[in-house]
Amino acid sequence: MSQAFPALAxxxxxxxxxxxxxxxxxxxxxxxxxxxxxxxxxxQPTPAFIRERAARALTDGRTFYTHNLGRPDLRxxxxxxxxxxxxxxxxAERLAVTSSGVSALMIAAQALVxxxxxxxxxxxxxxxxxxxxxxxxxxxxxxxxxxxxxxxxLDLDRLIDTLTPDTRVxxxxxxxxxxxxxxAVDDRQAILDHCRKHGIWxxxxxxxxxxxxxxxxxxxxxxxxxxxxxxLVSTNSFSKAxxxxxxxxxWMVAPAELVEALGVLLEYNTSCAPDFVQEGAVAAxxxxxxxxxxxxxDLGAARDQVLAGLRALPGVEAPEPEGGMYxxxxxxxxxxxxxxxxALVTEAGLGLAPGAAFGEEGExxxxxxxxxxxxxxxxxxxxxxxxxxxx
Length: 391
Ligand SMILES: Cc1ncc(COP(=O)(O)O)c(C=O)c1O
What we know:
Layout: H1 11-14, H2 20-28, E1 35-36, H3 48-59, H4 72-86, E2 95-98, H5 101-112, E3 118-123, H6 127-135, E4 139-144, E5 146-148, E6 151-153, H7 156-162, E7 167-173, H8 187-198, E8 201-205, E9 232-237, E10 250-253, H9 256-269, H10 275-287, H11 289-311, E11 316-317, E12 326-331, H12 337-348, E13 350-351, E14 353-354, E15 365-369, H13 374-390
Parallel strand pairs: 1-13, 3-4, 3-7, 7-8, 8-9
Antiparallel strand pairs: 2-10, 5-6, 9-10, 11-12, 12-15, 14-15
Helix pairs in contact: 2-12, 3-10, 4-10, 5-6, 5-9, 11-13
Bound molecules: pyridoxal-5'-phosphate (PLP).
């Protein structure tokens, strides 16, 4: 849209790039046989117990507006779930239910970011995390992760040096999309202390916290360390852990003092999440643990399968993801990930996301969403092997 009406949109909107993942997916439109691993979602639908509960609510006529901050019973259920998961009391007064994880990010940013603010973002990262502060007129400074010894790692000193006292917000997504990098338990306190010292808001995008490949129920989170009044907002979603991408439901944990303002912003963004969707979420939280456990096991097996397959190919570097649902890897000599991703679609029938979609730091890399059945991942690996042989 910004290209069609270049002079009409605000400058911050005109400079937004359209999604490079979509650009690759569009190159595959109409092709008869493409195995797609480009989007960040499972190839399986939402578990039946969640769909059935929401369908009942819909049949019962639960089709009206509800509370801005989410239905009180959902907020209470969420408070109990999060308190148990993180081993620390998280009261409903700190919660806001949103229409998706991305909407939680946008609303949190609307509450905190002013034009001209300096914002730091750990990259490469899912494009929305960096573009949302840009839409609001912030100056975004990337702090890039690096592949080291077969894993992605964060240079803590560099991050701390970047977080100067005039920084307004640090956006940090862990486990990270696209790399699978996961914040180290021991790095949390230093980041929190530094943000506290300078009054910097910490915006933790925790949508993959349940999808960690360690035995712990959650990836390391700031929530158990933080005081309820700390300048911390944790955004989250039902999309990934409960395979509810199409439902558009998320939440955030924030200081109680901010929640009233979030409610007002919710009114002006989406007003409220649909009642029957929230009913499905109650089922996800109260009956969903066996599903989440099984999903984690499936994703762990898929990660091992895809990583082993990639590492067996000549010239492939594939650091090990510690969480999430993606392998972020590169082929020797690839400097233009968009061109390569398009060639893979048209010449090999393989749909991957180009690393450049995740910021300059992702250029040269490709992302494979392995939340797919083993046969599909295996067929994709075969296509990549054939393509590399023929090159
Ligand atoms: C890092 C990250 N944050 C947030 C989201 C938002 O998820 P949703 O808007 O589906 O809740 C995604 C989705 O891919 C993501 O990868």
